[in-house]
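Hi all, posting the design record for the shared folder.

TITLE: backbone redesign
STEP: 1 of 1
STRUCTURE INPUT:
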């Protein structure tokens, strides 16, 4: 489809239809059982809402389902988000994320993507 988003660097280009990084996070939580009607108050739409509906945690405690962010909201023109899916044999945090640069969903070390901030979604805090 043609990208028509005002201000996007990809406006006017033809791209495969799909999700951006924050949409992928929302989609993942809904498909894991989070009721779609509660999205606005539980996981949020967009990286800023997802940041605001989560709590900061140290990287050392990051576990499955936690969120990884590239930057704090408002400090960059574009932020990026992924979901922690584990650790590799070297103990590095592995994150699944939707990246147009990597052409779709991929799993990478947080370090290789420059994820610096880890947050626990409110829906995972008991």
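Okay, here is what came back for every position:
SEQUENCE:
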């Amino acid at each position: 489809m043609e990208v028509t988003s005002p201000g996007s660097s990809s406006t006017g280009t033809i791209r495969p239809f799909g999700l951006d990084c924050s949409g992928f996070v929302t989609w993942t939580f809904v498909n894991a059982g989070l009721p779609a009607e509660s999205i606005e108050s539980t996981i949020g739409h967009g990286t800023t809402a997802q940041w605001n509906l989560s709590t900061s945690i140290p990287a050392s405690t990051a576990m499955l389902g936690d969120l990884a962010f590239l930057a704090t909201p408002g400090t960059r023109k574009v932020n990026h988000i992924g979901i922690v899916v584990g650790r590799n044999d070297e103990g590095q945090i592995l994150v699944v994320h939707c990246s147009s640069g990597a052409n779709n969903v991929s799993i990478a070390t947080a370090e290789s993507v420059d994820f610096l901030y880890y947050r626990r979604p409110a829906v995972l805090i008991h």
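COMMENT: The chain has a mean pLDDT of 89.
Let me know if anyone wants the other runs.
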